């Protein structure tokens, strides 16, 4: 039976924890709003880019000089995985689920005899994977301390990936990230970046089935568009992941605040019971003392 | 016949409205786009997009490169970066020009694609300086 003082200390400590978690929830909510707006603002570009790429790929498909980013290196030996996680924890299963998905994928690929390389984006993912797959990690990127993700960040990352593909250091590139569906639902998504999976939607692009003219020519445009498309896809994944992180943290902190509230209630009840018991005990002692006289 | 013009940068939708004519800086020379244009996909170089209402230029936006998709009804510009000319800073352009020139010096000239990319960056920066002056 803990003493009254112990209980009081305990209640106070849980109360301050609750204050912290509810403050963190508030911060996550305001950051979420900003991140969500950014994701939505970036969406039109990605959509139009996909439409244009569809029209282009349809007219270049099958050409022997098609760029590596579109068709891959032709081999299927070295897989580059890019797990996108947050730089901070306390966001529920947000980081762990990416880590787990990446590990499963890496194990599966290795069982098939393929080489796996990992480029970890975000500190938590790197730390998680370093324990088991440390030898596969070829690099890591972190945006810790950045107020706002910029397109240039995604471009730099895309440049790194493109260079690896061009040099034949990676045949297939897969991105693993949390897609932001709603504040409470982040979906772990595996997206293949190279070879670019082009959706055949070229007919929608030109109403009436009109085909496009190109200037300068298809190949030149495609050669420029593809690395750019890679940046756009990466940028989108980074933004989705950022929004998802704040959503996950908000939910996690909301739960934590509620749990702390429950705990305070329980502890307060215990405290009151113990106090009452003490008073009763003292009274009995006084009364029985008086009777004995 | 007006044409629906959309200018999109990776970070947001910059502008979407009908214009009478848009002059866009295509890779091989400026291009006036009116309604009913033949479908085209063009690469852009750095330069200013001019929006016309009647004979008047109503707005000018600087783009540092990108692509445009043109159909008879609309013109979608996917710009790497789009800034209204009024907000353009000359100093920023000069800083970029210096950076681009340094990158060109350092670039591996045996690889033509690398060299071209570096030259494009210089051109875009130069266009930025010129547009900011005008």
Describe the structure.
The complex is a heterodimer of chains A (293) and B (134). Chain A has 293 residues and is an alpha/beta fold. Chain A folds into two domains: 4-17 and 254-292, Helix Hairpins, CATH 1.10.287.80; 29-248, 3-Layer(aba) Sandwich (Pyruvate Kinase, Chain: A, domain 1). Chain A is 63% helix and 13% strand. The longest helix of chain A is centred in the C-terminal third of the chain and has 75 residues, at 218-292. Chain A is elongated, with a radius of gyration of 28 Å. Chain B folds into two domains: 3-85, F0F1 ATP synthase delta/epsilon subunit, N-terminal (ATP Synthase, domain 1, Sandwich), CATH 2.60.15; 89-131. The radius of gyration of chain B is 15 Å and the shape is globular. In chain B, a hairpin with a 2-residue loop joins strand 1 (3-9) and strand 2. The interface between A and B is medium-sized, with 33 and 25 residues. Strand 6 (213-215) of chain A pairs parallel with strand 5 (40-44) of chain B.
Q: Helix content range of the residues of chain A, please? A: 55-70%
Structural class of the secondary elements of chain B? alpha+beta
Helix coverage percent of chain B: 25-40%
N-to-C SSE string of chain A, H for helix and E for strand: HHEHEHEHEEHEH
How many domains make up the coordinates of chain B? 2
Counted by DSSP, the helix tally of chain B is: 2
SSE run of chain B: EEEEEEEEEEHH
What's the arrangement of strands in the largest beta sheet of chain A?
Answer: 3-2-1-4-5
CATH class of the largest domain in chain B: Mainly Beta
What name does CATH use for the topology of the largest domain in chain B?
Answer: ATP Synthase, domain 1
Using only C-alpha atoms, the radius of gyration of chain B works out to: 15 Å
Mean pLDDT of chain B: 86
């Amino acid at each position: 039976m803990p003493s009254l003082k112990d209980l009081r200390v305990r209640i106070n400590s849980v109360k301050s924890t609750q204050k912290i978690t509810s403050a963190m929830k508030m911060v996550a909510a305001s950051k979420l709003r900003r991140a969500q707006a950014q994701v939505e603002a970036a969406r039109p570009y990605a959509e139009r880019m996909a439409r244009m790429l569809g029209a282009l790929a349809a007219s270049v498909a099958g050409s022997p000089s098609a760029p590596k980013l579109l068709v891959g290196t032709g081999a299927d030996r070295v897989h580059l995985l890019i797990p996108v996680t947050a730089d901070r924890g306390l966001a529920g299963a947000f980081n762990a689920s990416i880590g787990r998905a990446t590990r499963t994928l890496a194990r599966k690929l290795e069982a098939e005899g393929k080489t796996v390389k990992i480029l970890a984006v975000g500190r938590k993912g790197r730390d998680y994977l370093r324990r088991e797959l440390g030898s596969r990690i070829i690099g890591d990127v972190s945006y810790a301390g950045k107020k706002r993700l910029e397109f240039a960040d995604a471009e730099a990352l895309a440049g790194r990936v493109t260079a690896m593909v061009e040099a034949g250091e990676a045949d297939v590139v897969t991105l693993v990230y949390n897609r932001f569906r709603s504040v409470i639902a982040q979906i772990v998504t595996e997206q293949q970046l190279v070879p670019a999976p082009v959706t055949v939607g070229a007919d929608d692009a030109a109403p009436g089935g009109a085909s496009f003219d190109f200037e300068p020519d298809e190949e030149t445009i495609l050669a420029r568009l593809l690395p750019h498309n890679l940046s756009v896809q990466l940028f989108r994944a980074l933004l989705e992941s950022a929004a998802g992180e704040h959503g996950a943290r908000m939910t996690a902190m909301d739960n934590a605040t509620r749990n702390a509230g429950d705990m305070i209630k329980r502890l307060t009840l215990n405290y009151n019971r113990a106090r009452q018991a003490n008073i009763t005990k003292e009274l009995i002692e006084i009364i029985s003392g008086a009777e004995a006289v | 016949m007006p044409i629906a013009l959309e200018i999109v940068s990776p970070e947001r939708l910059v502008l979407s409205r009908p214009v009478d004519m848009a002059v866009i800086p295509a890779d091989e020379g400026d291009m006036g786009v009116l309604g009913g244009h033949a479908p085209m996909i063009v690469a852009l170089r750095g330069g200013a997009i001019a929006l016309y209402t009647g004979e008047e230029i109503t707005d000018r936006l600087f783009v540092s490169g990108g692509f445009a998709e043109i159909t008879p009804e609309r013109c979608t510009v996917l710009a790497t970066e789009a800034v209204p000319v009024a907000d353009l800073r000359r100093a920023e352009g000069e800083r970029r020009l210096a950076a681009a020139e340094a990158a060109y010096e350092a670039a591996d000239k045996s690889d033509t694609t690398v060299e071209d990319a570096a030259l494009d960056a210089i051109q875009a920066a130069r266009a930025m300086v010129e547009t900011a002056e005008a």
